[in-house]
UniProtKB/TrEMBL annotation:
Protein name as catalogued: SulP family sulfate permease
GO cellular component: membrane
PANTHER family: SULFATE TRANSPORTER
Localization per Swiss-Prot or TrEMBL: Membrane
Start and end residues of each SLC26A/SulP transporter domain: 22-398
Protein's organism: Mucilaginibacter yixingensis
Transmembrane annotation, as ranges: 26-45, 51-68, 123-143, 181-199, 211-231, 266-285, 305-327, 348-377, 397-428
Keyword Transferase: no
Keywords (A to Z) from UniProt: Membrane, Transmembrane, Transmembrane helix
Length: 534
């Protein structure tokens, strides 16, 4: 009865919060839809896949992952970090249907990772690295969207890598766009940014989200500029496939070719996609939790199960691999979303746009969508974040800055990997400094050195303890006190016993206090909660 009451109470709370947050989630869904639309198309184009595959993956990322995930703010879709893998896989495997089989198997691998609780690896990313990744994504958005805001960029929308497929890099792409500047796009971008800043301050805005107003004004200005020197070129507009009938729509779906199941390359591709997609998902999930205003913690293993299920469905229908994507997720947070309703609704909006209003969608200028992402980037890489990290100390600021530089000048996963190495170095250095403290007193002509070990002394502390012991003065009395220690690693115990064994060569007397021969790994005490009805 008590369990039933709790469950009912939870259901009522869920309904309450859903109703309360709907006025925030629906406008946020519109923003994410507008951000996701060109990204889905750009990533499909860069992956060598049909444009429909990109839209389909965005739809499934919203509806399937949004429904199954435990994260309230994360948004899934096709990921820029997988474009090279997908492009190479389609080329190597020979046809798209064989690649779809690899994607289905990748989804199975992800479900297996979720079942064995591999998602807990997401809890070990250093905070400074995640903050650096967020700031880097913000900077990349500003640098990569600027060409689309002022003119034209041959690189695909959504690229996050420094080296681009069009033989440019992030910086040369900006100069290339300035050489092809279109003043119509500049005007639309300027008006869009002005609306993004001004409209939320206008109290009587009727609840209309600023990005929706930006799109409407962009379409109006684009049509007004037609036939003039400010007219936009065809490549400066959104392009989604136009579906004329239900038969044509269902004809766009493609299915995996299971005859390739014995091909070793299929399994290698599947495993590669599963690992890379899972890592990017866990990174994005951790980053979204960082910027969640309510500071909720997303269940990582459940996320892997949701992503795996959605990738299986995507592979069966002809889509692309998906991950939790930080660009869409951060746009979702910045737009004020509170629950997963926003992510699910954005998937439904993608489906509606494809089926019912593709011609209207194709009137949207990329420059106004770029302006939305420019504002998102500015919020992620705000100056106050750099000040905050500086005040936290160099051990946080240095990994933060190196992560930013590494992500901007390589790509997301490589950059975070470099940041992780630097972050772990500082963690180890801090850890090595804190395994003990000691006090020196004099007893007659002899120094007495009392070394008190910390509560937990791990293998990482071995080097620091060894250096400390070998530096103690000769002809002294050394008392190594483990009375405060719940755990001492076996390697550290060996170091202590070896020191005691050889101390006589320096005329050192060593006394061990409560240093046991073996310690069990400390376990968390079981917490008990008394639940009662309010």
């Amino acid at each position: 009865m008590e369990q039933h009451g709790i469950a009912a109470g939870g259901l009522n709370l869920r309904k309450y919060f859903l109703g309360k947050n709907l006025k925030k989630d629906l406008p946020a869904a519109v923003v994410v839809f507008l951000v996701a639309l060109p990204l889905c198309l750009g990533i499909a184009l860069a992956s060598g896949a049909p444009l429909f595959a990109g839209i389909l993956t965005g739809i499934l990322g919203g509806i399937v992952v949004g429904s199954l995930s435990g994260s309230q703010l994360s948004v899934a879709g096709p990921a820029a970090g997988l474009t090279v893998i997908v492009l190479n896989a389609i080329t190597t495997l020979g046809n798209y249907e064989a690649f779809l089989l690899a994607l289905v198997l990748a989804g199975v691998f992800q479900i297996a990772l979720g079942l064995i609780k591999a998602g807990t690896i997401g809890n070990y990313f250093p905070s400074a690295v995640i903050e650096g990744m967020l700031a880097a994504i913000g900077i990349i958005l500003i640098l990569k969207q600027f060409p689309h805001a002022v003119g034209y960029d041959a690189d695909f929308v959504g690229d996050e890598g420094f080296k681009q497929a069009d033989q440019h890099n992030t910086f040369s792409g900006i100069f290339g766009a300035l050489a092809k500047i279109n003043y119509g796009a500049v005007v639309i971008s300027a008006v869009s940014i002005g609306l993004m800043i001004w409209w939320p301050k206008f109290k009587k805005n009727g609840g209309v989200p600023a990005p929706l107003l930006v799109v409407v004004s962009g379409i109006v200005l684009s049509l007004a500029f037609g036939g003039s020197g400010f007219a936009l070129r065809d490549k400066q507009l959104v392009h989604i496939p136009i579906v004329s009938s239900a038969g044509e729509f269902f004809g766009l779906f493609r299915h995996p070719d299971f005859s390739h199941i014995a091909d070793k390359q299929i399994w290698i591709t599947a495993f590669t996609i599963a690992i890379v997609a899972s890592l990017e998902t866990l990174l994005s999930l951790e980053a979204v939790d960082k910027i969640d205003p309510i500071k909720r913690v997303s269940p990582t293993n459940r996320e892997l199960l949701a992503q795996g299920t959605a990738n299986i469905v995507s592979g069966m229908l002809g889509g692309l691999p998906m991950t939790a994507v930080i660009v869409r997720s951060s746009a979702n947070v910045n737009a004020g979303a509170r629950t997963k309703t926003s992510a699910v609704t954005h998937g439904i909006l993608l489906l509606i746009s494809l089926l019912f209003i593709p011609k209207l969608i194709n009137l949207i200028p990329l420059s106004c969508l770029a302006s939305i992402l420019l504002m998102t980037g500015y919020k992620l890489a705000r100056i106050s974040l750099f000040k905050h990290m500086w005040h936290k100390g160099l051990d946080q600021f240095i990994p933060f800055v190196i992560t930013i530089l590494a992500v901007v000048f390589t790509d997301l996963l490589i950059g975070v990997g470099i940041g992780m190495l630097v972050g772990v170095f500082y963690i180890l250095r801090t850890n090595m400094r804190n395994p003990y403290f000691y006090q020196i007193t004099n007893k007659g002509d002899r120094k007495v050195i009392n070394v008190r070990l910390a509560e937990e002394v791990s293998f990482l502390n071995k080097a620091a303890i060894q250096v400390m012991l070998t530096s103690l003065p000769a002809e002294s009395t050394v008392i190594i006190d483990g009375s405060n220690s719940r755990f001492i690693d076996q390697d550290v115990l060996e170091t202590i016993h070896n020191y005691k064994h050889n101390a006589y060569t320096k005329a050192i007397i060593v006394q061990l206090v409560e240093i046991h021969d073996h310690y069990d790994v400390p376990k968390l005490k079981e917490l008990k909660f008394n639940v009662s009805n309010a």
